[in-house]
Design goal:
Layout lengths: L18 H13 L2 H6 L11 H15 L10 H4 L3 H5 L4 H9 L6 H28 L11 H20 L8 H18 L6 E2 L4 H7 L2 E2 L2 E7 L5 H14 L4 E6 L4 H12 L22 H11 L8 E4 L6 H19 L3 E7 L14 H19 L2 E7 L20 H7 L2 E6 L1 H5 L7 H14 L2 E9 L6 E7 L4 E4 L8
Parallel strand pairs: 3-7, 3-8, 4-5, 4-6, 6-7
Antiparallel strand pairs: 1-2, 8-9, 9-10, 10-11
Helix pairs in contact: 1-3, 1-6, 1-7, 7-8, 8-14, 11-12, 14-15
Length: about 500
């Protein structure tokens, strides 16, 4: 027996609306223009259900923003010939609205009610569109899939929710911002607590150079292949999450979550006298005589991960919208499960983010879209986005292999959007691949390699918050270990 699913399809007349709130707000504005400044910072004409009210609000807003006083008299000439206004009695309607306003105290609640109804109308319309596409009705395209329809609907609803709630970042006076800075510094001085806007990097020298990772900013870590940018990022992220104060969402678009976790486990289990490489913990090594000892090392550090607010999402080909939606979900999960905020979103790497079809074939425009989209996510969610990036091959053609800003793929766009840009560089990588027939030169190469074998540099080439300078680290690439160099002087 076939069953027919019925769904609610409200007519335009039955869509959520609150005409009384619209009239109350317009009346308050026409009576006292201060009502606009009090309640309308995030209210747009399209939020009104009644088109005439939307036009009235748009006209009043334009006059007020132009520094003029607004009243039924000053708006009379704009609506004298308006047919909708004539249908309800002419411009005397504005006078009635103003006369009915007793106080502006209710203006904020009126504005909130208007925006709430608008959000509900938007949700209904987007849901109806998704139903039509899913059922193959008029307007559906051959490219519509269940996944694309669901993602589109979730993204649209999230857009509406964000628009209604606001991003949490509003225009402020210089004095108010200064007060916030001074209060944060005063709290840090009195209590020793870290400022809420700063996320410790987990490294002494990097912390000194950057002052920490900043919320609402984008840090770009770039390198040629095999330099260790993923190793550096993984070790950094587990240090940040290890404080249990900052949630980390790692979108690994290139490497599988298992490979990332192997690197993290060997990093946690690392000691100079008993190093463990991630190739040593593969199932193919299970019959090795030392395998039981290796397994015991992993089991010893496993509890450190139990309460670590770190999520690794290794789905490939994610779009900006999918990253944004997932980050919102992880934000709620961190708050509920770990009692900490989402502080860092890492993306490995930018070139693997799937761009929209808008700029198909134009790699520069696609990278611009990705870079700006990630920066928007940082500001919207008030997190630090740590974005990994590949360098072009220009480095390989130079005698000096140290990267520079011009080596970034689509350099202009990435350089513009990044608040901090660091290049991972290991001289040992090139020394290992260079051989000399001359014995003297070969001896020099081997001596230099011995000195630099465990050295990683992050060349800070752009820093909006401090100096641009190289930061040196100890690294053991096979074990996924990155550490402050000052603790490992014996390796120099």
């Amino acid at each position: 027996m076939n069953s027919v699913a019925h769904h609610y399809e409200p007519s335009a007349d039955h869509l959520p609306q609150n005409l009384e709130a619209e009239q109350g707000l317009l009346g308050a504005i026409l009576c006292n223009n201060d009502a606009f400044n009090t309640a309308c910072a995030e209210l747009e004409p399209e939020h009104f259900a009644e088109p005439l009210h939307a036009r009235l609000y748009e006209a009043a807003r334009a006059e007020i923003l132009d520094g003029k006083r607004v009243s039924p008299v000053t708006l009379h000439h704009r609506f004298a010939a308006d047919e909708a206004m004539k249908a309800i009695g002419g411009t005397v309607y504005m006078a009635r609205l103003a006369a009915s306003a007793v106080t502006i105290l209710n203006a904020p609640s009126y504005a909130a009610a208007i925006r709430e109804c608008w959000l509900r109308r938007q949700i209904i319309m987007h849901a109806q569109d998704a139903i039509a596409r899913a059922s193959g009705a008029l307007g559906a395209t051959p490219d519509d899939t269940g996944t694309s329809i669901a993602t589109g609907l979730a993204s649209a609803v999230l857009e509406m929710t964000t628009a209604t709630q606001g991003s949490g970042r509003k225009a402020q006076t210089a004095a108010h911002i200064a007060d916030t800075i001074i209060a944060d510094l005063n709290d840090a001085y009195r209590t020793g607590a870290e400022p809420a806007a700063v996320i410790p990097t987990g490294y002494t020298d990097l912390q000194r150079t950057l002052g920490g990772f900043r919320r609402a900013s984008m840090v770009i870590i770039a390198a040629r292949p095999s330099m260790g940018k993923t190793t550096f990022a993984t070790s950094t992220l587990r240090r940040i999450a290890g404080s249990q104060k900052h949630g980390v969402a790692f979108f690994s678009l290139e490497m599988a979550a298992r490979n990332i976790e192997e690197m993290m486990l060997t990093d946690l289990a690392y000691s100079a006298s008993n190093r463990l490489e991630y190739r040593d913990i593969q199932p193919s090594e299970a019959q090795h005589p030392d395998f039981a000892k290796r397994l015991e090392q992993l089991m010893e550090v496993r509890p450190l991960l139990e309460h670590m607010p770190l999520i690794i999402d290794d789905r490939g080909g994610l779009t900006l919208s999918q990253i944004r939606i997932a980050a919102m979900q992880y934000k709620q999960r961190f708050e509920a499960q770990f009692g900490c905020p989402l502080s860092v979103i890492a993306v490995d790497h930018m070139g693997k983010v799937k761009p929209s079809q808008r700029y198909y074939g134009d790699s520069t425009a696609e990278m611009t879209e990705v870079a700006r989209g990630l920066k928007d996510i940082a500001k919207e969610l008030d997190v630090c986005v740590l974005a990994l990036c590949q360098l072009n091959r220009g480095v390989e053609g130079r005698e000096d292999k140290r990267p520079m800003l011009s080596d970034l793929r689509q350099a202009g766009t990435i350089e513009e959007e990044g608040d901090v840009i660091g290049f991972v560089y290991r001289e040992a990588y090139y020394l290992e691949r260079r051989k000399y027939d001359d014995i003297s030169l070969e001896d020099q190469r081997m001596a230099r390699l011995d000195k630099k074998r465990n050295c990683m540099e992050v060349l800070i080439s752009k820093n909006r918050f401090g100096p641009c300078q190289p930061v040196e680290f100890f690294c053991d690439m096979g074990a996924g270990r990155v550490q402050d160099m000052e603790h490992w002087d014996r390796y120099r």
